[in-house]
């Protein structure tokens, strides 16, 4: 979730002096993800969470709330900053909806995944960027405003791109109702995201400022609901998912990030902060969206890999951020 609220807060949060002050709080996000996943799979709480947070209505509501909070945090300053680095935004779009879906399909074919696992892997490759990328960009010394706009742009484009890719890559595996998936993404993503944007422009600054300050907390809470619910659903499939779900949930983002970093070096992109942001944006897909779409259209078995990815991507992002944080982007 975005870690800034307005232009003044943005400069305050990403300055070197204040990162040290707030670093411990920011680093708690991956830890909370792990805690939520443990609660989802632990025998004392698993059944309760699976029957409540693991059902489709709470998961859909949490995802919509996550999108609403994201829309509320977008500012005109973010959009202006993005126009100065439109090449990065475009590269991210190409990687997110060009390279990653094809890479997911290649992995599914190479490792001869079962149809449910193939569906989960391809769904993960076809969805938009995840909101956790904004936090990891901050921790890694990236460009937070650019990260927010990259996530926002892929989220909007994904309303059409995701169902089209799913239709193209999975039509020989399972029957696909692209129109139904388009409606799902519109209701889960486009409507709450647009509502957040409109509210951000309609509310007075005095009223909007305290709301924006709470958006990261709201986004984190929504993510915890999604992770706990997803983990509880995945735990019921532990006898069948084995190591393949863990491997695919890690291999896809690692390969995608590595290829993106190599591409950035070949193109000789000079702004290191932008390069870090681009790499993080590409590998930080939205496993929460993939998980909800899998449950809604393909069943629980297909949702296993996106559910595991909720945890593995959080840990991978934290690891990458920790490595890059020790290296000055300048």
UniProtKB/TrEMBL annotation:
Protein name as it appears in the record: Probable sodium/metabolite cotransporter BASS1, chloroplastic
Q: Which GO cellular component does the record give, naming just one?
A: membrane
Q: Which UniProt keywords apply?
A: Membrane, Transmembrane, Transmembrane helix
Pfam family for this entry, one: SBF
Q: Which residues form a coiled coil?
A: none
- Location (main, coarse): membrane
Q: Where in the cell is it found?
A: Membrane
- The transmembrane residues are 26-44, 56-75, 87-106, 118-137, 144-165, 185-203, 215-234, 246-267, 301-324
Name the protein family.
Belongs to the bile acid:sodium symporter (BASS) (TC 2.A.28) family.
Keyword check for Membrane: yes
Q: How does it sit in the membrane?
A: Multi-pass membrane protein
